Amino acid sequence: MTISAAEPVATLARIRARSDGQPVLWWWHGEVLGKRPGEIARRLMRINGVGFNRLRLRYLIEAGGLIRPSFPGAPFDGQVAAPLVVGDRVWSSERLAAQFPAPATPAVPGAPKGLAGEPMEVTHFCAALADVNDPLLTVVPATMSHTTMWSFYPWMGMEADAGYVLSEIIGMKIAGPADIPAALRERIESDHPGFLANPDI
After folding, report:
1. What is the pLDDT of residues 166-185, one digit of tens each?
2. pTM for the predicted model, two decimal places
3. Which residues, 6+ apart, have CB-to-CB distance to 65 below 8 Å?
C-alpha cells in the first residue's frame, strides 16, 4: 500500500495488525499514576502485559477515521487520525473518549469497574514507512505508546470522585511468545494455561 492521509484506517490496520488475518502479539510495560484532589500525582504501580490484535472488518470505523460507538446512549468521541509521515517513519494514532453511567446495581466491593466512568485513551503507533508500503511484508515491525485516564478503580479502595488514575505504557510488536520477558511469560502460562498458544479460546 501507499500511505495516504485519506486512508487513516488502512494505515492503522497495517501497522497494528497483520495482513493475513492471523493474530499478532504486542508486549508492553509502563506505570499507573494516581492523582487525588489537592495532591500531586504519584506512582501507584508498574504494569507489564501482552495483547493480541487480529485484523477484522472494522465496520464501526468510517473510511475517514470517525469511530462509531457500538453501545447506545453513552456520550462518545472517537477518531483515527490521518497518518503522519516524518522522514522515514509513519505515525498512526487513535483517540477514544466516552462517558459510561455507573451500573444500576452497586458493584460488589473489589469487583472490576467494567465500563463505568469517563475514560480517555490515546494510542500512537509508529513504523518504518518502507515497511508499511511493502506489499510483501505480512507483519510490519512497529512500536506503540498508550495513555489512559480514568477514575480510580473500586479495588483501589477510593471514592468515585476521589480523583483519577493515569496509565502510561510503551510497547512493541513481537514475533511470538518466546519474545515475552521470561518472568511475564511464566506468570501468564501459570495463571492462564494455553492462552499464549491459542488466544481465541
Report:
1. 999 999 999 999 999 999 99
2. 0.84
3. 8, 9, 79, 80, 81, 82
